[in-house]
Amino acid sequence: CNFIHAYASYIYILMKRLFDIALGLLLLPISLGLMIIIAGLVRLSSKGPIIHWSDRVGKRNIIFKMPKFRTMHSESPNIASNLLKNPEDYVTSIGSFLRKSSLDEIPQIISVITGDMSIVGPRPALFNQYDLIKLRTENGIDQLAPGVTGWAQVNGRDELTTVEKVAFDIEYLNRMSFFFDLMVLWKSLSVLITRKNISH
């Protein structure tokens, strides 16, 4: 029984990685034109780099650099936007649109191809989200590769507390399968279209 479970886990991990690489390599050239347009808009909207490299917590709590199109002014505090008193004061003129449409996340395709991230998995915590990191580590979530989208993302996103996020992460850990990942991806598209639970 343990052998069968281990074999099934190995097959799932292999399929997940192959899917990530295949989808990443497919999306990269398709989205190139859009990325060039967004890069131009970011450059025109405010001073600072086009890409913001955020220190994020990856698999086994290893810190990696996650790329996003910059949506906030360069002098903004390096904390989660939901912790800011008035987050809208720090967002650039194009930043709000990029965040609500999730277009700022497109550069993460590179992180998926390199293996720092997966298409589906728990969203990577900022290096200083200590409560979230602690809870995830206590529940084994730290053993998962972070995702561009995830189960918590499609069940609340900005509206969730830290405890609620981890509860969804635990549910994802317990239900992990290739077909469940496809379901999460499908629901992500629905959330993206409706912009549900995206507050900033």
Walk me through what this model shows.
- This protein is mostly helical and 200 residues long.
- It contains six helices and four strands; from the N terminus they run αββααβαβαα.
- A two-stranded antiparallel ribbon has the order 1-2.
- Strand 3, helix 4 and strand 4 form a beta-alpha-beta unit.
- The chain is globular, with a radius of gyration of 17 Å.
Which helices and strands, and how do they pair?
Elements: H1 2-45, E1 51-57, E2 63-69, H2 95-101, H3 108-114, E3 118-120, H4 130-138, E4 147-149, H5 162-175, H6 178-194
Parallel strand pairs: 3-4
Antiparallel strand pairs: 1-2
Low-confidence stretches: none
**Range of strand content:** 5-15%
Instruction: Please estimate the helix content.
Output: 40-55%
What spatial form do the alpha-carbon principal axes imply? globular
**In terms of structural class, how would the helical and strand content be classed?**
mainly alpha
CA-atom Rg in angstroms: 17 Å
| CA-CA gap between termini | 47 Å
SSE succession: HEEHHEHEHH
Question: Number of DSSP helices?
Answer: 6
Q: Which oligomeric state applies?
A: single chain
User: How are the strands of the biggest sheet laid out side by side?
Assistant: 1-2
Largest sheet: 2 strands, antiparallel
- Total strands: 4
User: Average pLDDT, to the nearest integer?
Assistant: 89
